[in-house]
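Homework help board

Subject: predicted structure for assignment chain

Our instructor gave us this sequence and asked us to write out the predicted structure in token form, then describe one feature. I got the tokens but I'm not sure how to describe them. Can anyone check?
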Amino acid sequence: MLRLKNNREQILFNMLENEAPFDSRHPLSKSRVCLVSYTWKDEKGRASHIAGPPQDLYRYLKPRAKEVVFIEQPQSYCPDITPTMTVCENGVEKKPIRFPMFWFPYNKARADIQHTPFPYVIFKIREVLSTAYFLIRLRRRFDLYVGVEAVNAIIGLWLRRFRVVKRVVYDVIDYSPQRFDNSKLNWIFHFMDRYCAHRADWAWVQSGRVEPMRLELGARDDQICPHILKRSGFGTDVSSLKVDSKENFDPYRLVYVGGLHPTDGVDCLVEAMPRILEKVPKARLVIVGDGIDAPKLRGRAKELGLEKNIKFTGLIGNPTEVEDLLASCALGIVPYRKDHLSLKHFNDPSKPRLYLGCGLPVIITDVPEVAKDIHQRKAGLIIDWTPSALADAVVSLLTDQAKLAEYRSNSLQMAEDFTWDRIFSNVFSQMGY
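My token output:
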């Protein structure tokens, strides 16, 4: 089976904590870069493995840029919501500085206020004040400023007017025409999005669908900044994975890892299992994750008599355990429900990359753009969102071991294109670095 040469947690420690050799020949080696982003931190103030692409960008910049200033703005539902600033000069990281939070009305994690107007605005004010506090304290000028999401990008645009920064990147990770259910928040989101898209030097997007939608929603073609495609990456270096010659995995085990919400479409997978079992009686399904649909899905599996065929593990917080589980499976399932206004349609979900990086062929609905790439490279199959289509795709691979082996090999080869180092090198080269 696919085995990790290195423990995933050790790899992450090496990524985020170890001082990599500074590359004085890199085009960024004479540049000062400021990165301002939301993040996810645990109760001890440490960035979690689910903190996302900004952490990977910081890891990429540390040994390459002359100086990197990383300002992290924890989400409202994090155990630690205090913003921090970390400075890294010539590959050497200094101790983080914390923002004074004695004045802040929401001093504890509050998941329930994430999408309500007043607290949402208060947290955005926190982002502006903390970034201003850190940069005034630092007294630096920057060659490049990367603002993740609109508020942080707007701060960079204001700083550019005062010549504190030279060029600004607007990095968009969660774009959607219907970003919020609350109409007022949605209007604010798109107003700020257009402001940034018209004024930034570059916009990083996860899908080629974003720019046309911006134009459709009112952005001006003659003012919009250049858009650069920045796909999701595979957090671990793919070179840390290898395939055992015996391919000692369970050829009948399916797996789903992720949220259990309506848009995730896992109900289609549960409904498909009886059809799969008719052709492949040994098939088993493992569902890893949690969400509002979890009770309904468990109840439906029981109604269908599938208690022995479907295992619900709940959330698994240890990434090493998740990857070990994936490496023991035959197929990874991504049954997103069709919704042309969803985040998944306009972004690049990390779930397919996780499956590919563990050598799993991906059964996926035609929702994210990457689905077509997976199908074309024979690393998986595109399906309609129906139990019959899902079952037919699964059966076609589980009953043809030669085809399954070919697709597993193609999956790992495709994953090699999505290491963060390759993705960011391509992005910065398009920017002239």
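Reply (TA_rk): Your tokens look well-formed. For the description, you could write something like this. Residues 1-18, 242-246 have pLDDT under 50 and may be disordered. That's the kind of observation they're looking for.
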